[in-house]
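agent: user wants the structure for ABC transporter substrate-binding protein from Vibrio sp. HB236076. delegating to structure tool.
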Amino acid sequence: MKGFFTAFKVLILFFLSFAVQASDNTIKIGAIFAKTGEAAEENMVLFQAVRFAVDEVNQLGGIHGRAIELLEYDNHSNAIQSLQAAQRAVADGVLAVIGASWSTHSLAIAPYLQKMQTPMISPDSTNPRLTAIGDYIFRACVSDTWQGKLLSKFAWSQLQGQTAIILQNTNSDYSIGLSEQFALDFASMGGEIKAIINYKSDLNNLDDILSKVSASSPDILFIPGYGESGKIVKSAQNAGIKSKVLGGDTWSYKEFFVHGGQDLHEGYYSSHWNKSLTDTKSVDFVERYGKFYQITDYVAGGYDAAWILFEAMKRAKKIERQVIRDELANTRDFDGVTGRISFDSQGDAIKGMLIIKITDGKTQVLSKIDPSY
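agent: tool returned. relaying C-alpha cells verbatim.
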C-alpha cells in the first residue's frame, strides 16, 4: 500500500509539473482599458472583443502551438494609472499590449512601452502624436490627421458649410487633436472658423457656450468629444440652434446616445465600422460575436487589433518582442472586420472610414470613404 501511495504521489507531481510547463509555454499579451471610471462602460466591450479573439485563436491551435494568455489591466480611466498598468504588464512578462482606447490613456503608456521595446496596438486612439512616439507603437485605426481631413471635406462639400464653430474638450487629447486638424483643413478649403470654444468634461459653462454659438449662427457645429457631446447636441437642439452638428468617431460610443444623442433630429459623424454593414465579413462577425456579447459599433476595432497582432505573431520566426514588432510593421492588406488594413511607415492604419447620419436618434451609413479620399 505504501508503494501505491508513493507511485500515486509521483504521478500527481508529474501532472502538476506538466501543467506548470504548459502554463509557462503560453504567450502572454496584455489588454489595457478601463474597467472603472468614466471610460469603463465603453471600454469594457473592448476587453470582451479581445477575449473573444483570444478564444478564437486558441481554439485554432494558438500561435505555433502555444496558447495565448490574456492578462487584463484596469487603467481606472486616467493617465497615471494607465502608465502603472503598462508597468505591471511589462513586469508580468507580456510580449505585446492591446490598448488603450482613449488617446489620453494611450499617450500615457506609449513612451514607457516604447522604452521597454514592447509592441503596442491601440484599437481606436486617433491622436496623431501617438505613433510618432516610436516604432513599437501602432494603431488599428486612422489617425486624426486623416480623420480631420475627411470630416472637414465632408462639412465643406457635402454639408455645404461655409462657417464653423468648434467645441473643444480641454480635458481630452483626442478632442484637442481632432479640433486642431479640422480647423486647419476646413480653413484650407476656404471655410471660416468663427471660434474654437473650450469646455471641460463637467460642462459647467454649457449655457455660455450655447449663447455664443447661437449668436454666431455657424453653418457647422463641430463637437469632437465623448459621451458629453450627447448632452451638448441635445441642449443645442433644445436651444433652437440650427447649425448642422458634426462629430468624430467617438460619437459611435453608446454614451453619446445615452446622454442625448438619441434625441438628436439630425447629425453626422465618422465611424470605423457599423453593425448594419452587409458585407460578408461584417455579417459573419455579428452572427458569431452576437452569440456571446452585445454588438456595438466599436467592438470590431478591438477584435481587429487583436487579430492583427496574432497574424504578426504567426509570421514571426521567433516569439520575441522585436520580431513581433517587425512583423506588425509588415502588416499589409489585413482582411479585417472594419476593412482592409495596412500599416504605413509610422504605424498608422491605412484604411477607410464611414460617415454615419443620425435621424431622430437612429443611425444609418451615409457613405463609405476610401483611404484615397
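agent: one observation worth passing along. The chain is about 45% helix and 20% strand.
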